[in-house]
Predict the 3D structure of the following.
Amino acid sequence: MIAKLPALARCFQGILPGALATCAPDGTPNVTYLSQIRQVDERHVAISRQFFNKTSRNLEANPRATATVFDPVTFEQWKLGLRYVRSETDTPLFVEMALRVEAIASHTGMKGIFRLLSADVCEVEWVRPVTGFLAPLPEGACADGPTTGPMTEIRALSLVSCRINRAADLESLLEDVLAALDEVFGFRHSMLLLLDETGRSLTTIASRGYGESGVGAEVAVAQGLIGTVAATGAPMRVSGMEALLRYSRAVRGTVEAAGGGAGLRREIPLPGLPHAESQLALPLLVEERLLGVLALESGDPLAFEEWHESFLLVLANQIAMGIERLSEEAEKEPAPPARAGTAAPAAAAHAFLYYEADDCVFVDGEYLIRNVPGRILRKLLRAARDEGRREFTNRELRLDASLGLPTVKDNLETRLILLRRRLEEKCPGVRLVPVARGRFALEMDGAFTLEERRGA
Amino acid sequence: MAVPGKLASLLEGLVAVHVATRDAALVPDEVMAAAALLELDGRSLTVYLPDATAGTALANLRDNGEVAVVLSQPLTHRTVQLKGRVETLRAAREEEREAVERFAAAFDAEVAAIGLPPAALRRRTRWPCAAATFAVREAYEQTPGPRAGEPLAPEGPR
């Protein structure tokens, strides 16, 4: 029986690595694990060349190879007869495979050491199931799980789009989108990260399905899966992350054993699920400008399939446009008359500590926030302490050059949401309460102190 | 060579076994073994190849005997490759069955921990088998990383 390659998509996800046999010109066979194999087109696959030097030498001298792969759901085994065609090092295929390798490598502090040398393209001469690998199924049993029809997905997309369009403000949009992904698609663990004003890091602005909200958690651009998606503007899906992370850690172990560990960074902790098995990260783009990243995680290694990537990209575009629209709308309505500040009742005092060197704010000895939201908070606290003010407008923040907001597309609204949520979590006695579009009040249950230090 | 004396400790816990052979035209084949057990001499390995799946491999071994075997621990990716020429090829005996089944069950348990469905794992054919025995001629480190491919006995014959 000859099968078509697309039928093997699941086998190529690397959950249980397959094997690759080659043969040297002197007749000595060689066998190695396949760390990454992917379909290039109907008749070609690409295998990742990272460390297997003997395989590479064999293929150059004798292009015949045999690969076996496993279906991670049914455990069926497939065998592919391959003929090595070429090695690619600077093509889109190579870049795509290299990004996947690098995303995994940077999670384990192996960036630069654990990297793709080439994408070796092989023609697939034949594909067949390894008959007899599994004993026959008992009569009436079903090997595969249930599938979902396309109409379900289209309906789901329309439902989520509807919620995006209905959102009255940015904060509810962020919450509604993550709720809809959970309720409609069953993606229970998700987070939205927005690019900060430096363009070098992303900050978590909303999350769903985690014990700790993680709001305020940062990811550097180009690091890890989320950072890589931000850097490239292309979606990425990693399945069988545990398998890949274990693989990468095995590499790290051998590097350290070889005495090459001095330059390694510490592992970046994966934000979110401690036992994530798969992750899908999508860029939020408006006219090629990156606003942030939507990241979904699951404990199921097969939670995200190939079609989710393109399908959810449509959604990501709508989310990005929604964020853009609501960030701008916040400014359009005229501000109502200022409300008188309310006197603060006596309650527990909070001690704010601001470090000028990195715009970092601590409250009662705990890290609160930094960068632009940190500078905004200092401004508000100073005005409250020195002038007794309690109400502020977005406009005055925009006009204050000391806050360092970009002159266009400043995302002030998202900075305020971030600040508001961090205060809710770490210092509920101090609140930013919207009173009208473009206007908010600083409410405090008690007294506070603000100390400013130059050093970090 | 120096390594076979250490083979027993080297192979401890390596429960996933893939076997490469090749035909007269140097076309390689790969098949998963049900088990790999070290012989009493400490330098020969017997791989147990299920009759149901090893047709090509067995034909290749009868033709030329050349064999390469990777043994690995799926959870850690610790991997070793051994090479040699098969000297004895025979049907596995009933008294070997228990050891083969035990070895195969260790693989099942490890792979189930990764998340593969145990019901499917139990369906893997592991008996009857052919037993192919070869003296280990070459041994290589194959754990992914910069040392992959290094001989485990550089002083030994290649």
In short: Chain A touches chain B through 58 residues (CB under 8 Å). Chain A has a mean pLDDT of 78.
